[in-house]
Amino acid sequence: MIRAITFFFATFSVSCFAQPVKDTTTHLEEVTVRAYFVDEPLLRLTTSAGVVGRGTLEQQSGHSLVPAFNTVPGVRMEERSPGSYRLSLRGSLLRSPFGVRNVKIYLDEIPLTDAGGNTYLNLLDPDGVDRIDVLKGPDGSLFGANSGGVVLIRPEGMGEDNGYNGSLRVNGGSFGLFQEQLSVKFNPSPTYQFGVNQAYQRADGYRENSAMTRATFQTVQRWNYMPTGELRLIALYSDLQYRTPGGLTEAQYAENPRFARPATAAIPGAAEQQAGIINKSLIGGLVHDVQISDKFKHVFSIFGTHTDFSNPFITNYEVRDEYNFGVRTYLDYAAGNPDAFLWRFNAGLEWQQGGTDIANYDNHGGSKGDEQAIDALKSHQHFYFVRLSADVRNRLTMEASLSLNYYRYGYKSDFPISEPLFTDRRFDAEWMPRAALSYMFMPQLSGRLSVSRGYSPPTIAEIRPSDNIVNTALEAETGWNYEAGFRWQTPNRHVFVDGAVFYYRMEDAIIRQLRETGAEFFDNAGGVIQRGVELSAVAWVVEPRRQGVLRGVQVGTNLTLSRFRFGNYRVADDDFTGNNLTGVPGSTVVSSLLIRFPFEISGYVLHNYTAAIPLNDANTVFADPYHLLQAKVKWETALNQRLTLQVFAGGDNLLNQRYSLGNDINAFGGRFFNAAAPRNFYGGVVLRY
């Protein structure tokens, strides 16, 4: 922790609040968050939040969302191999060894998180994302069951730009990286606009058996059929395929980190079995947004997804056919005098239904063999929510919200036993309240307090994990979160500081365990106590301007301190009470620097310090701390009045650290380590119209 604090005060970064330079004004744009249906100033928001804006996304490499997400304190995103994402908000990765769980994610008004609790975040192309708002801590009052937080993604094409524009991006890099992305937007009429994003990405990967390809097509279409009414279509098709090299023991990791998981006397290796993921998904929905009067607004969305999923694994070959559909609707009513007393009321519901047909076969070198188990599962969740907020003289903001959450699933076996009917498992309806306030002590300083309840039922992937056994005894996680924070900015918004402390006590935490074959299963541990501190700061040392050698210098830093401990937690005869929570570093510091030069040249440097990470519940094995240094330089020039050319180049892991960005936790046989790539480089061009 001392080392982390030293780094915090010694280094600076462009934080997630960085905004692109637009003119020579000394007053920068105010950062807003669309957390609760309307854009609100971040300075006055009652919840802890992070904003990954367009400016921050453009400073990244463009082929991964990981560095951008990790600029938000309290957020940890990992990529075990190209295309294999894990995301954690203020919590452990115990539930998310291979994906995203325990976090609710939306694409505009469409949930990416399905009725079974799973989210395929890796389907998105990074250049198809315009903005990411992260709400940290349990916030189910408006967004349904979660105990980690909420991620709100605005897709490319949702901006307010008029006319025709487009861009073509091509880049390549080390380990076979190639990426092409085409984005166009049209306004055929004053009332209709649509955007299309197409992307293709491939990589050979650093390790054996870690190649990846992803082809995506995304469209956002907006029809303003009247001045106060809009109908939106959002659709995404993604064809993602990537290999999974598997974990290595410490000895194997030291000998050659490029190895894929080797075979043993009893179990074949990852390359031999062609272990990997094939995910072909279609996601789409319609959103109707109408301002009925100057006080009254209604939003209704209908959505659906279909996924064709295959996973050749070490011990089996799994095939899943998944579907999901639902509706979300809410009313927004605002009244009062903004300079005296302004109040807002929201009420709505979200309903989802999903189904999954899962079949497991023997895996013969990447080909399906005999059946092992075939099951059908269905999931259903819905919740009702209300929210009341009041603003007193632009100084005091008070909020109270409540949701009632329902969840159930059903299952039946088709092989080796054929069951004619589904067996249902219903969870008790759960209330998720939230109360919060924010107070402006002065025009540039605010403080906030909140208390909220978290609730997260098990996902379908946890109920029926890779051991092919349906676990009906798995209970939902619950807990209470208490939080306090402050925000401060200078009058010209050149300096912004955001801090928070929280205490979250979780009960019935869902944890991942492994059988001797390597197949996983999940169980409920006892309590988990999470105490944390988050602090971010950003400052323009040299304000944006159009003269001088330095046209702008921005520095800042983000610090996360996590004191997460197991409460009463026992597995068989082992007592892990009081141990560090598996998979969570005690501290991280993300620091970077942005410098703008004449001739539209800029440089960006990002440094990520991550402390040691416990890899098993017993805390007998830790991943070493590491320093990850990234940099990017770009130059932009106008070719004519309409065409702009950008040339960029960058590098990752410039210190050539040996580290694992995505360890296997509680790994059987000590196979904890998934080596990340050493020093590597990329470069490319962007042509904008």
TrEMBL record:
Cellular localization per UniProt: Cell outer membrane
- Domain TonB-dependent receptor plug intervals: 44-150
Q: Where is the signal peptide?
A: 1-18
Note whether Lipid metabolism occurs among the keywords. no
Tell me where in this chain the TonB-dependent receptor-like beta-barrel domain is found.
223-654
Quote the PROSITE patterns the UniProt record gives.
PROKAR_LIPOPROTEIN, TONB_DEPENDENT_REC_3
Q: How does it sit in the membrane?
A: Multi-pass membrane protein
Question: According to its UniProt record, which protein family does this protein belong to?
Answer: Belongs to the TonB-dependent receptor family.
Name of the protein this chain belongs to: TonB-dependent receptor
**Organism encoding this protein:** Parapedobacter deserti
